[in-house]
Specification:
The complex is a heterodimer of chains A (164) and B (120).
Chain A lengths: L1 H6 L3 H15 L4 H17 L13 H27 L8 E6 L5 H13 L3 E6 L5 E6 L5 H20 L1
Antiparallel strand pairs in A: 1-3, 2-3
Helix pairs in contact in A: 2-3, 4-6, 5-6
Chain B lengths: L1 H25 L3 H30 L6 H26 L12 H8 L9
Helix pairs in contact in B: 1-2, 2-3
InterPro entries (chain B): PhaG_MnhG_YufB
GO molecular function (chain B): sodium:proton antiporter activity
Protein name (chain B): Multisubunit potassium/proton antiporter, PhaG subunit
Chain lengths: 164, 120
């Protein structure tokens, strides 16, 4: 097990890199697959110090559902923000909220922060130093408590199920 | 038929990209302006890339998948750059129409180490 983890410290990262390589060269000839696997094996080894945590995906289907939900929310977000930009700017109520985090792993927190930025009217602005709060700027939100509850329920919970 | 689909995608892309840029111009403070390019453009660039993928898949032999990669990289990098911009703005104490929730976060972190959290 230890030799295994030393030789292949991040299997998921390796697979992702191989997939990325095949997309980059846009062909799936055997030679490219071997080259992709080689890159997928070597890059994580060479960049080991960047990845202190081992990523585990506990629930792949929840992850798929999360990606689907996120894509849908991104489309909705585009329309929402477009309407706000074209509408009456004086009626916008921008607000900063402090989102208490239940997540602890680096990857999960950064995914949550990215999801928040990509979805309707919110941009994550700063992670507090103790990593327990995320400062979020909302473009137009009358009710901060509902927003916090929505983010926690819609994005944070699935991420927690998947990664922690 | 394909032409109509492509035209629709390209027009949608152009419109959303334009609205995103318009947001930069119209919105009133830095933090609000951040919302324009991070969101309205994802769908804009997304539609343009889908149009490109559809066109080249029909034009040349084989399916064109580079666009998926571009989309992926865009979706990874856009939030990160927005986050860094917001962080820099907080650090510089730029004027904001939105109120801080509690004074603590900004004030406390001003006094201690700033700018970049080095954890590892």
């Amino acid at each position: 097990m230890t030799t295994m983890t030393r030789l292949l410290p991040h299997p998921i990262l390796s697979l992702t890199l191989t997939g990325l390589w095949l997309l980059l060269v846009n062909s799936i000839t055997p030679g490219q697959i071997v080259l992709g696997l080689l890159l997928g094996w070597m890059i994580p080894l060479l960049t080991l110090r960047f990845w202190p945590e081992v990523v585990t995906i506990r629930k792949p289907f929840t992850l798929l559902r999360y990606v689907g939900l996120l894509l849908w929310d991104i489309i909705v977000a585009n329309f929402t923000v477009a309407r706000l930009i074209l509408g009456d700017l004086d009626r916008l109520k921008p607000i900063f909220i402090q989102l208490p985090l239940s997540l602890t792993s680096d990857l999960a927190i950064s995914l949550l922060a990215s999801s928040i930025t990509l979805t309707p009217g919110t941009v994550s602005a700063k992670l507090s130093e103790d990593r327990r709060y995320l400062l979020v700027h909302a473009l137009n939100e009358a009710d901060p408590d509902t927003l916090i509850a929505t983010i926690k329920q819609r994005y944070e919970r699935p991420l927690q199920e998947i990664f922690e | 038929m394909l032409e109509y689909l492509l035209s629709f995608l390209i027009l949608t892309g152009a419109i959303f990209t334009f609205i995103g840029s318009l947001g930069l111009l119209r919105l009133r403070d830095f933090y609000m302006r951040l919302h324009g390019p991070t969101k309205a453009t994802t769908l804009g660039v997304g539609s343009l890339l889908i149009a490109s993928a559809v066109f080249f898949s029909n034009h040349d032999a084989g399916i064109s998948l580079h666009e998926i990669l571009i989309t992926l990289f865009l979706f990874i990098t856009a939030p990160v750059s927005a986050h860094l911009l917001a962080k820099a703005a907080l650090h510089l104490n730029l004027h904001s129409f939105a109120k801080m929730p509690v004074k603590s976060i900004k004030e406390k972190e001003r006094s201690s180490s700033d700018a970049i959290d080095v954890k590892h």
